[in-house]
Amino acid sequence: MGPEREAKTNNKRSSPEGKMELEPFQVRGDLVAHSEVEEDEFTPKSPISMPYIPDELNDPTAYPATLAAFNEAHVKYKAKLNRRYGLFSLPPQLNLASPCLFNHRHLLTIRESALKAVLHAAKSIIRLSSSVDGKPLANCCGLWIKWDEDSKTGIVLTTAHLIRSNHPTENLWEGKDEYNIKSKVIVHLLDGNTADGHYLYHQQHYDLAFFKVRVDEEVEVPHFNVSMNCGQDVFRLGRDGHMILRMTHGSVEYLNPGSAERHHYMYFYHQKVDSLSHQRRDDRLPNENNDDYLCDDDGGSVIDLDGKVAGLVNKHLEESFVPSSILDKCVDLWCKFRCIPRLHLGMNFISIKLLDPIHIEMICRMYKIEDGLIVQEVSKESHAEKLGICLGDIIERFNGELISTTVELEKMLLGRCKDHLDQGGHLNEKINISIQVFHTEERLRRNINLSVDVSDGAEVVNRRTYPITAIEGTFASGQPSKNVADDPCLPRQERTWESYLREHTEKSYST
Protein backbone atom coordinates (compact mmCIF):
# COMPACT_ATOMS: atom_id res chain seq x y z
CA MET A 1 0.00 0.00 0.00
CA GLY A 2 1.40 3.41 -0.94
CA PRO A 3 1.92 6.11 1.70
CA GLU A 4 -0.88 8.26 0.28
CA ARG A 5 -3.38 5.42 0.30
CA GLU A 6 -2.27 4.22 3.70
CA ALA A 7 -2.75 7.67 5.18
CA LYS A 8 -6.16 8.01 3.58
CA THR A 9 -7.31 4.70 5.02
CA ASN A 10 -5.93 5.20 8.50
CA ASN A 11 -7.53 8.63 8.80
CA LYS A 12 -11.01 7.06 9.07
CA ARG A 13 -11.89 7.81 12.65
CA SER A 14 -14.92 8.89 14.61
CA SER A 15 -16.34 12.23 13.57
CA PRO A 16 -19.16 14.47 14.78
CA GLU A 17 -21.27 13.07 11.96
CA GLY A 18 -21.02 9.62 13.54
CA LYS A 19 -18.51 8.04 11.18
CA MET A 20 -17.18 4.82 12.54
CA GLU A 21 -13.89 4.67 14.37
CA LEU A 22 -11.36 2.17 13.06
CA GLU A 23 -8.88 2.47 15.89
CA PRO A 24 -7.37 0.77 17.81
CA PHE A 25 -7.16 -1.96 15.16
CA GLN A 26 -4.98 -1.33 12.15
CA VAL A 27 -6.91 -1.50 8.90
CA ARG A 28 -5.82 -4.56 7.00
CA GLY A 29 -5.20 -4.25 3.31
CA ASP A 30 -6.10 -1.58 0.78
CA LEU A 31 -9.78 -0.63 1.07
CA VAL A 32 -9.52 1.97 -1.67
CA ALA A 33 -10.66 1.09 -5.17
CA HIS A 34 -7.75 -0.13 -7.25
CA SER A 35 -7.01 -1.05 -10.83
CA GLU A 36 -5.29 -4.16 -12.11
CA VAL A 37 -1.54 -3.85 -12.75
CA GLU A 38 -0.22 -5.00 -16.14
CA GLU A 39 2.34 -7.79 -15.94
CA ASP A 40 5.06 -5.76 -17.65
CA GLU A 41 4.56 -2.96 -15.08
CA PHE A 42 5.01 -5.31 -12.13
CA THR A 43 8.22 -4.98 -10.09
CA PRO A 44 8.95 -7.98 -7.83
CA LYS A 45 9.42 -7.05 -4.20
CA SER A 46 12.53 -8.06 -2.29
CA PRO A 47 11.96 -11.26 -0.33
CA ILE A 48 11.45 -11.12 3.43
CA SER A 49 14.57 -12.30 5.19
CA MET A 50 14.87 -12.55 8.98
CA PRO A 51 18.18 -11.15 10.34
CA TYR A 52 20.22 -12.96 12.97
CA ILE A 53 23.65 -12.68 14.64
CA PRO A 54 26.09 -15.57 14.09
CA ASP A 55 27.12 -17.35 17.27
CA GLU A 56 30.73 -16.19 17.01
CA LEU A 57 29.60 -12.53 16.98
CA ASN A 58 26.81 -12.84 19.52
CA ASP A 59 28.59 -10.92 22.28
CA PRO A 60 27.14 -7.42 22.78
CA THR A 61 30.14 -6.27 24.79
CA ALA A 62 32.74 -7.39 22.25
CA TYR A 63 30.74 -6.53 19.14
CA PRO A 64 28.44 -3.54 19.90
CA ALA A 65 28.38 -2.43 16.26
CA THR A 66 27.06 -5.86 15.25
CA LEU A 67 24.24 -5.59 17.80
CA ALA A 68 23.32 -2.08 16.62
CA ALA A 69 23.23 -3.24 13.00
CA PHE A 70 21.10 -6.22 13.98
CA ASN A 71 18.61 -4.04 15.87
CA GLU A 72 18.23 -1.71 12.90
CA ALA A 73 17.76 -4.65 10.49
CA HIS A 74 15.24 -6.29 12.85
CA VAL A 75 13.08 -3.13 12.94
CA LYS A 76 12.96 -3.10 9.13
CA TYR A 77 12.20 -6.83 9.07
CA LYS A 78 9.27 -6.44 11.50
CA ALA A 79 7.91 -3.50 9.52
CA LYS A 80 7.98 -5.47 6.29
CA LEU A 81 6.42 -8.50 8.00
CA ASN A 82 3.63 -6.41 9.49
CA ARG A 83 2.84 -4.92 6.09
CA ARG A 84 2.38 -8.42 4.69
CA TYR A 85 0.29 -9.52 7.67
CA GLY A 86 -1.84 -6.45 7.06
CA LEU A 87 -3.18 -8.10 3.89
CA PHE A 88 -6.61 -9.69 3.95
CA SER A 89 -5.20 -12.96 2.63
CA LEU A 90 -3.46 -13.67 5.94
CA PRO A 91 -5.14 -14.43 9.28
CA PRO A 92 -5.73 -11.27 11.33
CA GLN A 93 -3.36 -10.66 14.23
CA LEU A 94 -6.23 -9.27 16.34
CA ASN A 95 -7.31 -10.36 19.78
CA LEU A 96 -10.79 -11.41 18.66
CA ALA A 97 -12.75 -14.53 19.49
CA SER A 98 -12.89 -16.87 16.53
CA PRO A 99 -16.37 -17.19 15.04
CA CYS A 100 -18.55 -20.12 16.00
CA LEU A 101 -18.10 -21.81 12.59
CA PHE A 102 -14.36 -21.95 13.28
CA ASN A 103 -14.11 -23.23 16.84
CA HIS A 104 -17.39 -24.91 17.82
CA ARG A 105 -17.07 -28.64 17.24
CA HIS A 106 -20.80 -29.30 17.52
CA LEU A 107 -21.26 -27.36 14.24
CA LEU A 108 -18.97 -29.63 12.19
CA THR A 109 -21.92 -31.40 10.55
CA ILE A 110 -23.27 -28.14 9.09
CA ARG A 111 -20.05 -26.16 8.79
CA GLU A 112 -19.61 -26.43 5.03
CA SER A 113 -23.17 -25.47 4.10
CA ALA A 114 -23.39 -22.87 6.86
CA LEU A 115 -20.12 -21.20 5.83
CA LYS A 116 -21.37 -20.86 2.27
CA ALA A 117 -24.66 -19.41 3.51
CA VAL A 118 -22.98 -16.94 5.88
CA LEU A 119 -20.52 -15.63 3.29
CA HIS A 120 -23.31 -15.16 0.76
CA ALA A 121 -25.61 -13.37 3.21
CA ALA A 122 -22.78 -11.15 4.49
CA LYS A 123 -22.69 -9.34 1.13
CA SER A 124 -25.99 -7.65 1.94
CA ILE A 125 -25.12 -6.54 5.50
CA ILE A 126 -23.76 -3.05 6.10
CA ARG A 127 -23.51 -0.74 9.10
CA LEU A 128 -25.06 2.65 9.83
CA SER A 129 -24.44 5.38 12.38
CA SER A 130 -26.54 8.40 13.29
CA SER A 131 -25.94 11.72 15.00
CA VAL A 132 -27.86 14.87 15.95
CA ASP A 133 -26.09 18.24 15.92
CA GLY A 134 -22.75 16.47 15.83
CA LYS A 135 -23.50 14.25 18.83
CA PRO A 136 -23.58 10.47 18.20
CA LEU A 137 -27.05 8.96 18.53
CA ALA A 138 -26.89 5.26 17.60
CA ASN A 139 -25.09 2.57 15.60
CA CYS A 140 -26.69 -0.47 14.03
CA CYS A 141 -26.59 -2.83 11.07
CA GLY A 142 -28.83 -2.86 8.00
CA LEU A 143 -29.78 -4.83 4.87
CA TRP A 144 -29.95 -3.82 1.24
CA ILE A 145 -33.46 -4.54 -0.07
CA LYS A 146 -33.51 -2.72 -3.44
CA TRP A 147 -31.06 -1.53 -6.07
CA ASP A 148 -31.65 0.75 -9.05
CA GLU A 149 -29.00 0.56 -11.76
CA ASP A 150 -30.07 3.76 -13.54
CA SER A 151 -29.95 6.07 -10.54
CA LYS A 152 -27.15 4.15 -8.77
CA THR A 153 -29.13 4.15 -5.55
CA GLY A 154 -29.94 1.43 -3.07
CA ILE A 155 -32.55 1.14 -0.31
CA VAL A 156 -31.47 0.00 3.15
CA LEU A 157 -33.83 -1.61 5.64
CA THR A 158 -32.80 -1.27 9.27
CA THR A 159 -34.25 -0.85 12.72
CA ALA A 160 -35.80 2.48 13.65
CA HIS A 161 -33.63 2.35 16.77
CA LEU A 162 -31.08 4.12 14.55
CA ILE A 163 -33.07 7.37 14.82
CA ARG A 164 -34.79 6.77 18.16
CA SER A 165 -34.03 9.82 20.29
CA ASN A 166 -35.92 8.83 23.44
CA HIS A 167 -36.99 5.51 24.92
CA PRO A 168 -38.74 6.48 28.18
CA THR A 169 -40.40 3.17 28.98
CA GLU A 170 -39.79 -0.52 28.38
CA ASN A 171 -43.50 -1.09 27.67
CA LEU A 172 -43.83 -0.73 23.90
CA TRP A 173 -47.64 -0.68 24.11
CA GLU A 174 -47.46 2.74 25.73
CA GLY A 175 -46.13 4.13 22.43
CA LYS A 176 -43.94 6.78 24.06
CA ASP A 177 -40.75 6.32 22.03
CA GLU A 178 -39.58 9.41 20.13
CA TYR A 179 -37.75 9.50 16.78
CA ASN A 180 -35.70 12.19 15.08
CA ILE A 181 -36.16 11.88 11.32
CA LYS A 182 -33.69 14.72 10.75
CA SER A 183 -30.81 12.73 12.25
CA LYS A 184 -27.68 12.66 10.11
CA VAL A 185 -27.17 9.07 8.98
CA ILE A 186 -23.88 7.71 7.66
CA VAL A 187 -23.85 4.39 5.79
CA HIS A 188 -20.62 2.39 6.11
CA LEU A 189 -20.10 0.39 2.92
CA LEU A 190 -18.29 -2.91 2.50
CA ASP A 191 -15.39 -1.35 0.58
CA GLY A 192 -14.50 0.91 3.51
CA ASN A 193 -16.10 4.03 2.06
CA THR A 194 -19.06 5.90 3.54
CA ALA A 195 -22.15 7.55 2.05
CA ASP A 196 -25.00 9.68 3.33
CA GLY A 197 -28.23 7.89 4.20
CA HIS A 198 -31.36 9.81 3.21
CA TYR A 199 -34.41 9.19 5.35
CA LEU A 200 -37.43 7.77 3.50
CA TYR A 201 -39.82 6.33 6.10
CA HIS A 202 -40.02 4.67 9.49
CA GLN A 203 -42.75 2.56 11.08
CA GLN A 204 -42.84 2.84 14.83
CA HIS A 205 -44.99 -0.22 15.57
CA TYR A 206 -42.60 -2.60 13.83
CA ASP A 207 -39.55 -0.39 14.53
CA LEU A 208 -38.42 -0.45 10.90
CA ALA A 209 -36.75 2.34 8.90
CA PHE A 210 -35.85 2.83 5.24
CA PHE A 211 -32.98 4.94 3.87
CA LYS A 212 -31.86 5.75 0.34
CA VAL A 213 -28.13 5.61 -0.41
CA ARG A 214 -26.12 6.63 -3.45
CA VAL A 215 -23.64 3.86 -4.34
CA ASP A 216 -21.54 3.49 -7.47
CA GLU A 217 -21.46 -0.30 -7.60
CA GLU A 218 -24.34 -2.76 -7.58
CA VAL A 219 -25.27 -4.07 -4.14
CA GLU A 220 -26.33 -7.57 -3.07
CA VAL A 221 -30.05 -7.85 -2.34
CA PRO A 222 -30.94 -10.90 -0.21
CA HIS A 223 -33.85 -13.32 -0.53
CA PHE A 224 -36.34 -13.86 2.29
CA ASN A 225 -37.42 -17.16 3.79
CA VAL A 226 -40.99 -16.59 4.97
CA SER A 227 -41.59 -20.02 6.51
CA MET A 228 -39.59 -20.45 9.70
CA ASN A 229 -40.07 -23.41 12.04
CA CYS A 230 -39.41 -23.70 15.75
CA GLY A 231 -36.01 -25.32 16.39
CA GLN A 232 -34.65 -24.49 12.94
CA ASP A 233 -30.89 -23.82 12.70
CA VAL A 234 -30.16 -20.15 12.06
CA PHE A 235 -27.27 -17.70 12.30
CA ARG A 236 -27.46 -14.15 13.54
CA LEU A 237 -25.17 -11.88 11.50
CA GLY A 238 -23.93 -8.38 12.14
CA ARG A 239 -20.90 -6.15 11.78
CA ASP A 240 -19.03 -4.55 14.65
CA GLY A 241 -17.72 -0.99 14.73
CA HIS A 242 -14.75 -2.04 12.57
CA MET A 243 -16.99 -3.64 9.90
CA ILE A 244 -15.76 -7.10 10.93
CA LEU A 245 -18.42 -9.76 10.36
CA ARG A 246 -19.76 -11.31 13.56
CA MET A 247 -21.92 -14.43 13.64
CA THR A 248 -23.80 -16.37 16.28
CA HIS A 249 -25.31 -19.82 15.82
CA GLY A 250 -28.67 -20.61 17.39
CA SER A 251 -32.16 -21.84 16.69
CA VAL A 252 -35.62 -20.35 16.33
CA GLU A 253 -37.49 -20.30 19.62
CA TYR A 254 -41.21 -19.67 19.28
CA LEU A 255 -42.43 -18.06 22.50
CA ASN A 256 -45.31 -15.88 23.58
CA PRO A 257 -44.32 -12.20 23.63
CA GLY A 258 -43.89 -10.60 27.02
CA SER A 259 -46.59 -8.25 28.22
CA ALA A 260 -44.44 -5.23 27.22
CA GLU A 261 -43.57 -6.58 23.74
CA ARG A 262 -45.27 -6.31 20.37
CA HIS A 263 -46.94 -9.33 18.81
CA HIS A 264 -44.65 -9.78 15.81
CA TYR A 265 -41.48 -10.94 17.56
CA MET A 266 -39.91 -14.36 17.29
CA TYR A 267 -36.94 -15.37 19.38
CA PHE A 268 -33.37 -16.57 18.95
CA TYR A 269 -32.04 -19.27 21.27
CA HIS A 270 -28.27 -19.37 21.69
CA GLN A 271 -26.42 -21.83 23.90
CA LYS A 272 -23.23 -20.08 24.84
CA VAL A 273 -20.10 -22.22 24.61
CA ASP A 274 -17.85 -21.17 27.48
CA SER A 275 -15.29 -23.96 27.15
CA LEU A 276 -14.19 -25.90 24.10
CA SER A 277 -12.74 -29.39 24.03
CA HIS A 278 -10.37 -28.57 21.18
CA GLN A 279 -8.71 -25.43 22.50
CA ARG A 280 -6.22 -23.85 20.16
CA ARG A 281 -4.92 -20.55 21.49
CA ASP A 282 -6.17 -18.71 24.55
CA ASP A 283 -6.52 -15.43 22.68
CA ARG A 284 -8.78 -17.09 20.09
CA LEU A 285 -11.39 -18.41 22.50
CA PRO A 286 -14.66 -16.80 23.57
CA ASN A 287 -14.77 -15.32 27.04
CA GLU A 288 -16.98 -13.00 29.04
CA ASN A 289 -15.46 -9.89 27.48
CA ASN A 290 -14.86 -11.21 23.98
CA ASP A 291 -17.70 -13.38 22.68
CA ASP A 292 -19.30 -13.31 19.24
CA TYR A 293 -22.69 -13.28 20.96
CA LEU A 294 -21.94 -9.90 22.52
CA CYS A 295 -21.72 -8.12 19.17
CA ASP A 296 -24.12 -5.21 18.76
CA ASP A 297 -25.99 -6.63 15.75
CA ASP A 298 -29.22 -4.65 16.12
CA GLY A 299 -30.60 -4.32 12.59
CA GLY A 300 -28.58 -7.29 11.36
CA SER A 301 -30.06 -10.39 9.79
CA VAL A 302 -31.06 -13.84 10.98
CA ILE A 303 -30.38 -16.31 8.15
CA ASP A 304 -31.13 -19.96 7.47
CA LEU A 305 -28.67 -22.55 6.14
CA ASP A 306 -29.49 -21.52 2.56
CA GLY A 307 -28.35 -17.95 3.22
CA LYS A 308 -31.88 -16.56 3.03
CA VAL A 309 -32.98 -13.88 5.47
CA ALA A 310 -35.22 -15.36 8.15
CA GLY A 311 -35.58 -12.16 10.13
CA LEU A 312 -34.21 -8.80 11.19
CA VAL A 313 -32.60 -8.47 14.61
CA ASN A 314 -34.62 -5.96 16.62
CA LYS A 315 -33.21 -5.88 20.09
CA HIS A 316 -36.02 -4.68 22.29
CA LEU A 317 -34.81 -7.77 24.10
CA GLU A 318 -31.47 -9.48 23.48
CA GLU A 319 -33.09 -12.48 21.78
CA SER A 320 -35.88 -10.94 19.70
CA PHE A 321 -36.12 -10.56 15.92
CA VAL A 322 -38.78 -9.68 13.38
CA PRO A 323 -39.44 -12.78 11.24
CA SER A 324 -39.32 -12.57 7.46
CA SER A 325 -43.00 -13.49 7.18
CA ILE A 326 -43.66 -10.02 8.65
CA LEU A 327 -40.73 -8.28 6.94
CA ASP A 328 -41.82 -9.51 3.53
CA LYS A 329 -45.30 -8.03 3.93
CA CYS A 330 -43.91 -4.79 5.38
CA VAL A 331 -41.46 -4.32 2.50
CA ASP A 332 -44.17 -5.16 -0.04
CA LEU A 333 -46.55 -2.59 1.47
CA TRP A 334 -43.89 0.09 1.62
CA CYS A 335 -42.72 -0.50 -1.96
CA LYS A 336 -46.28 -0.27 -3.25
CA PHE A 337 -47.86 2.37 -0.99
CA ARG A 338 -44.87 4.04 0.71
CA CYS A 339 -46.38 3.23 4.10
CA ILE A 340 -46.86 0.18 6.34
CA PRO A 341 -50.38 0.26 7.79
CA ARG A 342 -51.83 -2.25 10.25
CA LEU A 343 -55.13 -2.60 12.08
CA HIS A 344 -55.28 -1.37 15.68
CA LEU A 345 -57.46 -3.81 17.61
CA GLY A 346 -57.16 -2.19 21.04
CA MET A 347 -56.03 -5.48 22.59
CA ASN A 348 -52.93 -7.57 23.06
CA PHE A 349 -52.73 -11.33 23.38
CA ILE A 350 -50.82 -14.50 24.13
CA SER A 351 -51.16 -17.76 22.21
CA ILE A 352 -52.67 -20.90 23.73
CA LYS A 353 -50.43 -22.97 21.44
CA LEU A 354 -47.27 -21.60 23.06
CA LEU A 355 -48.30 -22.03 26.69
CA ASP A 356 -47.12 -24.72 29.07
CA PRO A 357 -48.72 -28.08 28.08
CA ILE A 358 -50.33 -28.38 31.53
CA HIS A 359 -51.95 -24.98 31.02
CA ILE A 360 -53.12 -25.94 27.51
CA GLU A 361 -54.70 -29.14 28.86
CA MET A 362 -56.50 -27.17 31.57
CA ILE A 363 -57.99 -24.74 29.03
CA CYS A 364 -59.04 -27.66 26.83
CA ARG A 365 -60.63 -29.46 29.78
CA MET A 366 -62.48 -26.42 31.12
CA TYR A 367 -63.54 -24.74 27.86
CA LYS A 368 -63.11 -27.44 25.16
CA ILE A 369 -60.75 -25.03 23.31
CA GLU A 370 -57.31 -26.07 22.03
CA ASP A 371 -56.30 -23.07 19.92
CA GLY A 372 -56.68 -19.31 19.84
CA LEU A 373 -55.40 -16.09 21.40
CA ILE A 374 -56.01 -15.21 25.04
CA VAL A 375 -56.76 -11.53 25.69
CA GLN A 376 -54.07 -10.10 27.95
CA GLU A 377 -55.08 -6.44 27.88
CA VAL A 378 -57.99 -4.38 26.54
CA SER A 379 -57.43 -0.68 25.88
CA LYS A 380 -59.76 1.62 27.79
CA GLU A 381 -62.53 3.28 25.73
CA SER A 382 -61.74 0.96 22.79
CA HIS A 383 -64.50 -0.64 20.72
CA ALA A 384 -63.36 -4.04 22.03
CA GLU A 385 -63.99 -2.90 25.62
CA LYS A 386 -67.40 -1.49 24.70
CA LEU A 387 -68.34 -4.84 23.15
CA GLY A 388 -67.56 -6.57 26.44
CA ILE A 389 -64.24 -8.28 25.60
CA CYS A 390 -62.31 -8.80 28.84
CA LEU A 391 -59.05 -10.14 30.21
CA GLY A 392 -58.96 -13.92 29.78
CA ASP A 393 -61.43 -14.11 26.88
CA ILE A 394 -60.26 -16.11 23.85
CA ILE A 395 -60.22 -14.91 20.22
CA GLU A 396 -60.67 -18.00 18.05
CA ARG A 397 -61.19 -16.63 14.54
CA PHE A 398 -60.25 -13.50 12.63
CA ASN A 399 -62.37 -12.77 9.54
CA GLY A 400 -63.45 -16.40 9.56
CA GLU A 401 -59.91 -17.84 9.77
CA LEU A 402 -58.61 -19.81 12.74
CA ILE A 403 -55.82 -17.99 14.52
CA SER A 404 -53.04 -19.70 16.51
CA THR A 405 -50.20 -17.25 17.20
CA THR A 406 -49.66 -13.53 17.45
CA VAL A 407 -47.28 -13.63 14.45
CA GLU A 408 -50.11 -15.18 12.39
CA LEU A 409 -52.36 -12.39 13.64
CA GLU A 410 -49.90 -9.71 12.49
CA LYS A 411 -49.71 -11.28 9.03
CA MET A 412 -53.52 -11.19 8.82
CA LEU A 413 -53.64 -7.56 9.98
CA LEU A 414 -51.08 -6.53 7.34
CA GLY A 415 -52.87 -8.55 4.66
CA ARG A 416 -56.21 -6.93 5.48
CA CYS A 417 -54.58 -3.48 5.25
CA LYS A 418 -53.16 -4.31 1.83
CA ASP A 419 -56.64 -5.31 0.63
CA HIS A 420 -58.04 -2.06 2.04
CA LEU A 421 -55.48 0.09 0.18
CA ASP A 422 -55.80 -1.98 -3.01
CA GLN A 423 -59.53 -1.23 -2.96
CA GLY A 424 -58.92 2.52 -2.80
CA GLY A 425 -59.02 2.92 0.98
CA HIS A 426 -56.80 5.29 2.91
CA LEU A 427 -54.86 5.57 6.13
CA ASN A 428 -56.60 6.70 9.32
CA GLU A 429 -59.94 5.27 8.28
CA LYS A 430 -62.08 2.86 10.31
CA ILE A 431 -63.06 -0.52 8.93
CA ASN A 432 -64.98 -3.47 10.38
CA ILE A 433 -63.54 -6.90 10.93
CA SER A 434 -65.23 -10.05 12.13
CA ILE A 435 -63.91 -11.91 15.16
CA GLN A 436 -65.13 -14.96 17.03
CA VAL A 437 -64.68 -14.54 20.76
CA PHE A 438 -65.26 -16.99 23.61
CA HIS A 439 -66.15 -15.22 26.86
CA THR A 440 -64.56 -17.49 29.45
CA GLU A 441 -66.43 -16.24 32.50
CA GLU A 442 -69.83 -16.64 30.85
CA ARG A 443 -68.73 -19.63 28.74
CA LEU A 444 -70.37 -17.95 25.77
CA ARG A 445 -69.18 -17.85 22.16
CA ARG A 446 -70.04 -14.79 20.00
CA ASN A 447 -69.32 -13.56 16.48
CA ILE A 448 -68.94 -9.79 16.56
CA ASN A 449 -67.98 -6.98 14.21
CA LEU A 450 -65.13 -4.91 15.60
CA SER A 451 -64.48 -1.37 14.35
CA VAL A 452 -60.72 -0.78 14.06
CA ASP A 453 -58.34 1.93 12.82
CA VAL A 454 -56.10 1.61 9.77
CA SER A 455 -52.90 3.32 10.89
CA ASP A 456 -49.16 3.21 10.30
CA GLY A 457 -48.48 4.58 13.78
CA ALA A 458 -47.58 2.61 16.88
CA GLU A 459 -50.61 1.01 18.49
CA VAL A 460 -51.19 2.21 22.04
CA VAL A 461 -53.06 0.02 24.52
CA ASN A 462 -54.04 2.19 27.50
CA ARG A 463 -54.79 0.40 30.73
CA ARG A 464 -57.93 1.44 32.56
CA THR A 465 -56.88 3.01 35.84
CA TYR A 466 -58.53 4.89 38.67
CA PRO A 467 -57.20 7.15 41.42
CA ILE A 468 -56.88 6.24 45.08
CA THR A 469 -58.22 9.24 47.04
CA ALA A 470 -57.15 10.69 50.35
CA ILE A 471 -59.91 8.79 52.25
CA GLU A 472 -57.90 5.58 51.88
CA GLY A 473 -55.75 4.69 54.90
CA THR A 474 -56.19 4.90 58.64
CA PHE A 475 -57.81 7.74 60.59
CA ALA A 476 -56.21 9.16 63.68
CA SER A 477 -58.52 6.95 65.77
CA GLY A 478 -56.70 3.95 64.37
CA GLN A 479 -59.81 2.60 62.62
CA PRO A 480 -59.29 1.71 58.94
CA SER A 481 -61.17 3.90 56.48
CA LYS A 482 -63.12 2.71 53.48
CA ASN A 483 -60.97 2.16 50.40
CA VAL A 484 -62.48 3.61 47.25
CA ALA A 485 -61.27 0.47 45.47
CA ASP A 486 -64.02 -1.42 47.31
CA ASP A 487 -66.74 0.88 45.98
CA PRO A 488 -68.88 -1.19 43.56
CA CYS A 489 -69.66 1.96 41.56
CA LEU A 490 -66.01 2.36 40.56
CA PRO A 491 -64.08 0.25 38.02
CA ARG A 492 -62.69 -3.00 39.36
CA GLN A 493 -59.04 -3.09 40.32
CA GLU A 494 -56.79 -4.16 37.47
CA ARG A 495 -56.21 -7.91 37.25
CA THR A 496 -53.33 -9.73 35.66
CA TRP A 497 -53.59 -12.91 33.61
CA GLU A 498 -51.80 -14.80 36.38
CA SER A 499 -54.34 -13.73 39.02
CA TYR A 500 -57.19 -14.55 36.65
CA LEU A 501 -55.80 -18.05 36.01
CA ARG A 502 -55.22 -18.65 39.71
CA GLU A 503 -58.77 -17.54 40.58
CA HIS A 504 -60.41 -19.80 37.99
CA THR A 505 -58.12 -22.73 38.81
CA GLU A 506 -59.15 -22.55 42.46
CA LYS A 507 -62.80 -22.24 41.43
CA SER A 508 -62.59 -25.30 39.14
CA TYR A 509 -61.03 -27.43 41.85
CA SER A 510 -63.59 -26.31 44.46
CA THR A 511 -66.44 -27.38 42.20
TrEMBL record:
Residues 1-24 are annotated as: Disordered. Gene3D superfamilies: 2.30.42.10, 2.40.10.120. This is PDZ domain-containing protein. Residues 1-22 have a biased composition (Basic and acidic residues). InterPro entries: PDZ_sf, Peptidase_S1_PA. SUPFAM superfamilies: PDZ domain-like (SSF50156), Trypsin-like serine proteases (SSF50494). Transmembrane segments: none annotated. Pfam families: Trypsin_2 (PF13365).
